[in-house]
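Task card 7
Instruction: Convert sequence to structure tokens.
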Amino acid sequence: MKVAILDGYVDEPSCLGVPPYVAPYPRYIYGMLKSLKISAKYVTIDSYRQDPTKLENFDLVIVIAGIAVPGKYLGGKPLSLKELYELKFKKSFLVGPITLELTKKYVQNLEYLNYEVINFPFEEELFKRLSNFLRLKNAKFNLDKFSVLGSDVVKQHPDYPHLICEIETYRGCYWRKCSFCIERIHGKPRMRNPKAVLDEIESLYNAGVRHFRLGRQTDFLTYMANFDYEIPKPNPEFMKNFHREIWRRCPKIRVLHLDNINPKTIAEHPDECRRIIKTIILHQTPGNVAAMGLESADEKVIKQNNLAADVEDVKFAIELVNRYGRFVGYNGLPYFLPGINFVIGLKGETKETFEKNFEFLKNLLDSGMLLRRINIRQVKIFENTPMRNFGYKNVLRHKKYFKIFKKKVREEIDNAMLKKILPVGRKITDLRCEINRGKITYARQLATYPLLVGVVGKYEKNTYIDAKVVGYGMRSITAIEPLNINKANFWQLEYLPISKKTVAKIILKRPFENIDEIKKVLGKEYDRIKDFIYV
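Output:
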């Protein structure tokens, strides 16, 4: 029996699985198959595109896919619904959030292509069908067991060991009222046993993984919280012990980050959250980001879409995270900063909504608050959400305002934030080179929301470098490794914060025997480049 897992990648409100991220799903499925005594092959969709023969002659291919919150991806191209029709296997199970987009007609068409569509969330039903397919009667479902058994699958990933593994602490949402969100499909929050989570992290660590994101939950602050309250009361003592145990078991972790935090939790339980934020800063690694769902700064939109937090809640949460997390860590980035999500096209949205959204961000900037990430996206509507009846009328109606708002934020807010967070000359460490385009190599840290860095020079993929900031885009920066002043090319020197005239002067006066000679030639201009050069 030949079985394969085809990872078409996922991106959900609470889960990311586009490279270099690995979602829990491939690991769960691989663990299921191992428990059923099946040795499976794991292939990413990008790897399959390069060589479709990798999945020839398999009896069953389990396809994982679904981009519920679309973004721009540097590390891989997710499998689309259109491309799904082009995949032809002997038999396939289709799983993941992509199934939430399928109409009855789509399902019927896929069935003609030998797909079995398994509704999301899929784990228990998939295990039943696998057991039936293999004619096993007494197999028992145990997701915690599968998560450990499946950890070795990461070794089959083409980017191994340059991966960051998404870890699920719980699924479901305590709010479950937002008009557009698919997290309601998971129902009330169901906590994973902390021991099982720790066992999974340790098993991945033993498999060679060193980068982790505690991301597969809607609000990290409420993991193992007291749910007797309408807004669950966080458990600071548990969080401290949980983090300590991670490091006791896995002492050489390089990155430990999180994803989602609900600002409503911070607003309702500030003392408990303050203690947990301090634990996060102490026991997680710098460059960390708390993604917060503001969605809209318009109170009318907040009310009509039953959003959890209002403007004052979000502002308070941003201020609290900034108070403790804005200090710079050893990798060049602040320890812990907030990120903000906007969703465009919701009920009640008007032209004034965009003005209020921008005003909210401008006030934060003017008050000295730092935001590491501002995500602006148009709503994606699913069948099982209240937005289904409202439709895309505001998306279509406000397309012009959306484009203007996004451009204005990128030019006037994002760029200014980057200059505050990473001033010229700041060294950023552990940049993983990914794609080379001419004179620039695009690199990122393995992190929860890594900053895109255009590094001056040509570097091989998976080279790790340290570089210093020399310039800014709207959502990215340009950086450069310190240059040997006598060997650097003209085009490399042009990226330094000096004029072309000064670059020409350097070229004409080379070689320099020491730093003092450079100082004599450049005079006061030397101070601009002293951090970027050596002899």
